Amino acid sequence: MNxxxxxxxxFDNYVRARQRARGVENRVDVSGVAGCELDxxxxxxxRQARTFFMGTVTGSGWPYVQHKGGPAGFVKVETAEGxxxxxxxxxxxxxxxxxxxxxxRDGRVCLLFVDFTTRSRVKVFGCARSxxxxxxxxxxxxxxxxxxxxxxxxxxxxxxxxVVASDSNCAKxxxxxxxxxxxxxxxxxxxxxxxxxxxxxxxLEQEVEDLRAQVELSRSGR
Length: 222
Description:
Elements: H1 6-10, H2 13-21, H3 40-47, E1 51-57, E2 63-69, E3 76-80, E4 83-91, H4 98-105, E5 108-115, E6 120-132, H5 137-144, E7 155-167, H6 180-220
Antiparallel strand pairs: 1-2, 1-5, 3-4, 4-7, 5-6, 6-7
């Protein structure tokens, strides 16, 4: 059973020395980040992601980061027996195959998911592997399924990441951003609120007129 947590992987002696030098060592929050199971809130953020960044290790020992994107729901999260794994289809890219090749040699990865609407982020350490369409066609087909629609883009392989540790921390320096669909949805809600408000105003104005008429009628009948 994996016993590593986020701090075990991220905080080596040099990192901890920096923390001590800045007087923050005892204030670094590492609670809730141990184990292989994602927090349900983090899993939800990942499932809703349209984009994320994936870091792998090159043969020369340098880090390599690649952007991954797709329609909302293209990243899956499955949890069983206290372990989570992240799955996503790998679309045709720039034909360099750096990430794919790195995974063939070293499966260690770091994933960064950012929800710009809520200014939330999740960092995931994991062990990844990929499988081609011809190796597991059923899995690739399952990843194409978004519930209400299917992914039509060309999928070259499926990537499976076994979660080792994760952390969701501060939202500093994350600028809030919205997609076109989210903006249009908010505009529609705003318009609906305006319509409801205007209808209520007209209703109240009519009630006022009716009350005035009743008062005038009452006065004339004296």
